[in-house]
Specification:
Helix content is 12%, strand content 38%. It contains two helices and 14 strands, in the order αβββββαβββββββββ. The chain starts with a helix and ends with a strand.
């Protein structure tokens, strides 16, 4: 009996030790985008990712609302899960009408109320609604479009250096890395 308990305990411990959490780049169109994500602008070398920091509170719209992380395996497009990346996530939730809400880990919905200007508005209790799909010219760049027309992008200009909603075609496209628990 004692050997059985030890064997069962050891087996459970080994299975738990094999569990792995990471963020995987979305490379195929999804029928439902619901999940936990890192919003990312990949650096040209694709060895580094600039992450939109969802841990920020009312400062989500500030200059340098980002941090950099290594892409741990560029051949499979993974970013490691750790305390900093896990705190930076955004939860995307599908609504009954097929639109999506995006909420930062800090509890703020993100969106824009001004389609033709650079902006990012945050609200604690009132969501913004978006459409999500891949851009037409690529299979890995994601288009998050507010219902009023603004598109979530990354601005690499040193004077700005931030994620915000911009008019179509302006600034750098983004990628989504979805949380995977194995």
């Amino acid at each position: 009996m004692k050997k059985s308990i030890i064997l069962i305990t050891l087996t459970i411990f080994c299975l738990a030790a094999q569990a792995r959490v990471f963020y995987q780049k979305v490379t195929t169109d999804l029928t439902d985008w619901t999940g936990e994500y890192l919003i990312v602008k990949e650096v040209d070398s694709i060895q580094t990712a600039i992450v939109f920091d969802g841990s920020l509170t009312d400062l989500l719209n500030k200059k340098n609302n980002t941090f950099r992380v290594p892409v741990i395996d560029a051949s499979v497009d993974e970013i490691a899960s750790d305390q900093k990346t896990d705190a930076a996530t955004f939860t995307i939730a599908r609504q009954a009408d097929g639109t999506y809400t995006i909420r930062s880990r800090s509890g703020y919905y993100i969106g824009t109320e001004q389609a033709d200007s650079a902006s990012l508005t945050t609200k604690k209790s009132t969501p913004f609604y978006h459409h999500i799909r891949f851009e037409s010219d690529t299979t890995t760049k994601v288009l998050i479009e507010s219902l009023n027309g603004g598109v979530l992008r990354y601005n690499a200009d040193p004077e700005s250096d931030r994620f915000r909603f911009y008019a179509h075609g302006k600034k750098k496209a983004i990628h989504l890395y979805k949380r995977v628990d194995t």
